[in-house]
Design a protein that fits this description.
alpha/beta; Rossmann fold; Methionyl-tRNA Fmet Formyltransferase, Chain A, domain 2; 8 helices; 14 strands; elongated
Length: about 290
């Protein structure tokens, strides 16, 4: 690790328990940084309460705002000297007026393998679209959306049966070290690797329609949607049923199920409930009426 004569000041932007893991790594790790403020959006979410409590217990000033672009909010930073801006799970684009004043620039944690899955909900989309891997990237913040130079990137393989809460546990394990590693590279004078536009993609925030399974959909895509929106989310939706957990059935069982329930849909067969589609079926192991 690069040695410095004194701690550098940083301002942290975060919203939830994932943000907290990153902040804890910087405060409690060996990197030479000192937080001078944490910015959170109001109203603070249930997940964000742990981050707020951590700041209060540590004596870290907490700045709450409804907009990072209001003049009242921005003028606070005109009077503060700081070296670095760090953002993790903060779902707003930071104005250049904030990060341009940081002598070391600004870093953002993004849970995808940039330049793929820029934008919102990067934890969900690789599952929905059946990717074989995803990852976590720390990049420098510029005026684009997740387009800055990459300081550190960690790849995470996606098992074919992984659920979103399991993936988030893997993300958290990476979050506890990746920002420290990126800061150390920044302190040593590295500028990061420029992102290429080859393979770049941008996705919107998850909407209710993205959670919906259609009768004409293939079973592989339906299973991906179930895994992407299971606990701690609302579940995938099909015709008035919220599916929280399911498992693909064998081809032999699917053939038998089609004999007793020919139309695609949710059917009870014996003591079990199944989502039967044109090319396969899912046994519903956890579900509720929407």
């Amino acid at each position: 690790m690069t040695q410095v004569s004194s701690k550098r000041n940083f301002i942290f932007f975060g919203e939830d328990a994932f943000s907290l893991a990153v902040l804890e790594s910087l405060v409690e790790g060996s990197v030479a940084l000192q937080p001078i403020a944490v910015v959170m959006l109001e109203p603070i979410s249930v997940s964000g309460r742990r981050l707020a409590e951590y700041c209060e217990n540590r004596g870290i000033p907490l700045i709450k705002t409804r907009s990072v672009r209001s003049e009242d909010f921005l003028t606070q930073f005109d009077k503060i000297d700081y070296d670095l801006v760090v953002s993790a799970h903060f779902q707003r684009i930071l104005p250049a007026r904030i990060f341009d004043r940081a002598s070391m620039g600004a870093l953002n944690l993004h849970p995808s393998l940039l330049p793929k899955y820029r934008g919102m909900a990067p934890q969900h989309w690789p599952l929905i679209l059946g990717e074989a891997e995803t990852g976590v990237t720390v990049h420098r913040i510029d005026e684009g959306v997740d387009t800055g130079r990459i300081m550190r990137q960690v790849r995470i393989p996606l098992d074919p049966d992984i659920y979103i809460h399991e993936l988030q546990s893997r993300f958290l394990a990476v979050y506890r070290s990746i920002m420290i590693e990126a800061v150390e590279r920044l302190l040593s004078g590295e500028h990061g690797e420029e992102q290429t536009e080859a393979g770049a993609s941008y996705f919107h925030k998850i909407e209710e329609a993205d959670m919906e399974i259609h009768a004409a959909m293939g079973v592989a895509r339906a299973y991906s949607i179930v895994r992407a929106f299971s606990f701690p989310y609302q579940g995938a939706r099909f015709d008035g049923v919220r599916i929280m957990k399911a498992k693909p059935v064998s081809e032999e069982l699917w053939t038998e199920l089609r004999k007793s329930a020919r139309a695609p849909g949710v059917h009870t067969v014996g003591t079990n409930r199944y989502l039967i589609l044109n090319d396969g079926a899912l046994e519903l192991t956890k579900w509720r009426n929407a």
